[in-house]
């Protein structure tokens, strides 16, 4: 049985939160899942993600359309997203290209200003502990 609009069928006044995971191939799958939810009239009330999931969640939370996200995804390559270089801080992996892409597409967006509440999950590389960002620059 399909409902015309599942948001109208909400007997428990529930909210929908979506958590998007990491893994490059999942990025495209996340966009497809968001498209399916939209087609069914299901609103996402809050969204979070890690790695590529944070990237997709950020675009969605700041109002980018499915078509705009798909266009970005079609043009992504590993080389366009990351580079390996020795950093003065001792790091090997640079995400400068991701930062530049986010600034280009979202501006100097602050997480707390998203149209849909947004959280970005990461791992503290020194302690291995989870860190959740609810404010600050998306980039």
Can you walk me through this structure?
Helix 1 packs parallel to helix 2 (52-61) and helix 1 packs antiparallel against helix 3 (66-74). The protein has 5 helices and 6 strands. It has a 4-stranded mixed β-sheet. The protein has a two-stranded antiparallel sheet with strand order 3-4. It has helices spanning 24-39, 52-61, 66-74, 78-81, 96-106, and strands at 17-20, 46-50, 83-84, 93-94, 118-123, 130-133. The mean pLDDT is 84. It has 139 residues and is an alpha/beta fold.
3D shape: globular
Percentage of β-strand residues: 15-25%
Helix count?
A: 5
Helix content: 25-40%
Distance between the termini: 42 Å
Describe the biggest sheet?
Answer: 4 strands, mixed
What is the number of E strands?
A: 6
Q: What are the main properties of this structure?
A:
four-stranded mixed beta sheet, 36% helix, alpha/beta, two-stranded antiparallel ribbon, 139 residues
Secondary-structure blueprint of this entry?
Layout lengths: L16 E4 L3 H16 L6 E5 L1 H10 L4 H9 L3 H4 L1 E2 L8 E2 L1 H11 L11 E6 L6 E4 L6
Parallel strand pairs: 1-2, 2-5
Antiparallel strand pairs: 3-4, 5-6
Question: What's this model, at a glance?
Answer:
The protein has 139 residues and is α/β, with parallel strands linked by helices. The chain has helices at 24-39, 52-61, 66-74, 78-81, 96-106, and strands at 17-20, 46-50, 83-84, 93-94, 118-123, 130-133.
